[in-house]
Amino acid sequence: MSGLLKSELLMPAGSLERLKVAVLYGADAVYLGTPDMSLRTKSDFGLEEVLEGVRFAHQHNVRVYLTLNLFAHNKDVEKLDAFVDTVRKVQPDGLIIADPGVFQYVRDRAPEIPLHVSTQANVCSSLGVRFWHSQGAQLVVLAREVSFEELSEIRQDCPEVKLEAFVHGAMCMTYSGRCLLSNFMCERGANQGNCANSCRWNYKLHLKLKDGTIKDLVIDDSNREMFEFLLEEGVRPGELMPIVEDERGSYILNSKDLCLLPKLDQYLKLGIDSLKVEGRNKSMYYVAVVARAYRMAIDAWQRDPDHWSPDPFMAELERVPSRGYTLAFHHGRLTNLAHGYQHTGQVADAEFAGYVVDQQEDALIIDVRNRLDAGDVLEFVPPRSEVPVRLRLYAFEIVGRQQTQEVVHAGQGLRLRVPLTRFDHEDRSTLRQRLPVLTVIRKEKPLTEAEHARVKLDRDARRLEAAERTDGKDSAEQDRSRYALHQIQLRSALAKQAERAEPKFIRQGNPGCCGKGCNGCLVFWHDPAYAKGRELMQQQKFGERLKTKAIRLGDSERG
């Protein structure tokens, strides 16, 4: 059985380069802004680049939405006429607006432009959707605080209005981004597109005595067991939320990142018109891998909705740096599992290594974005295939230089030349087609003990979010015990602040070999220990790789 596909995948485009990456990796639509009139003050778009981006997207049948979602002050109104003239020139497929006055202004002066209502307008009900539709809105972006149950009711009540919902990306601690912390802490207006992310900062607990003296409350091994810090919100008596404080401070406001991919089938069945991915100030690697994961997930559901599973696509999203994933308001009330109280960093076991910037008849040219060392495995992430292409390089050929290098640093303007002959176990006749310009490349990122503990804790939290809603408290008891254990492990690892990063996930089997049959790997293709693995690889089609580490010759004999 095939599913009826109505929903578009909407990706962020913070620059012309990222717009093209989003299109390449499967976006149905992209949204972008200019620094002066949207909430995307770090947008890298100038007018000519916007025009080029729109032309590029439309050539690939991808829609483009512009953002005009600031809350306007009088000084901003003076720019509106010029902005409307620019929008007419760009001819986007929609204009995203939050301010009611700006909405009316544009509607009256440019009635031909399709208008969308931004999530900043905080639309949470059918009543709000109907209001904006009566004002001329063609699409309404619902607030992140809307639960799936509420979304279903709105869809039923407002079938004539297009609805858009966020499914992935950073979460703001305040109501749909209406934050005063940034203004208070550093005079940067969040709703003027200039948020300082004050909610991500660490905060230290101090003790103020009644005589006015302020003292640090130092928590160390001598007194740590004497204290436990808990928050209790006024209308939730007995629901205690832990605050963890150490020498680095506390992160009581740090929300995890939204990820609704585990529930994506519900949104597709409901027929939400647009599934939006947040991506302010994100890299092209983020845009590529997130777009690819959701594209593959949506396509898999369309092919066979009855047997759809999110697991393989979640595994891909885990390779993108995040603050941990949460279902957030999907089930209604937000829980403490949606926040990271101990660690605010973005963590993943992979990092952006570079991307294909050009192709020659017999080689790929790579722009380097992170340090590369001899022996590193480069994992090319193809836009239209679920199977990555892995290549181990023991020396790097630099464009314009005769001698190879064993270490290459980002930021030096160096580009690698990778001959197609290095891909000795691929169908090289199709390789350039499979790895076009803008294909992103990643490499293993060694994790510290603390980062590894954070990854385990994040996975526990995701299991608990699902278990609390479907299996009941009794069946989730084991997961809760594991979650508590991993909290302790993370606290311990943070206290140690291990300086040396140790790989935790990929390097298994023989030292330096992952056992997946990477192109150019001297260990896998020549070590007698991997004879069985090579035999299995011969049974694979071009481009396929072993899904588990290769069986090494003699393992069973040693048993």
Task: Please tag this protein with its features.
559 residues; alpha/beta; eight-stranded parallel barrel; six-stranded antiparallel β-sheet; 18 helices; disordered C terminus
Mean pLDDT value: 82
Distance between the first and last residues' Cα: 46 Å
Shape: globular
Low-pLDDT residue spans: 503-510, 548-559
Biggest sheet strand order reads 1-2-3-4-5-6-7-13
Number of strands: 22
Rg to the nearest angstrom?
25 Å
Helix content bin? 25-40%
Q: Main sheet?
A: 8 strands, parallel, barrel
User: How does the helix and strand content classify structurally?
Assistant: alpha/beta
Estimate what percentage of residues fall within beta strands: 15-25%
Q: Helical stretch count?
A: 18
Describe the structure.
This protein is of the alpha/beta class. Helices cover 31% and strands 17% of the residues. It is built from 18 helices and 22 strands. Strands 1-2-3-4-5-6-7-13 form an 8-stranded parallel beta barrel, surrounded by 5 helices. Helix 10 runs antiparallel to helix 11. The chain is globular and about 70 Å long. The protein starts with 7 loop residues before the first strand and ends with a helix.
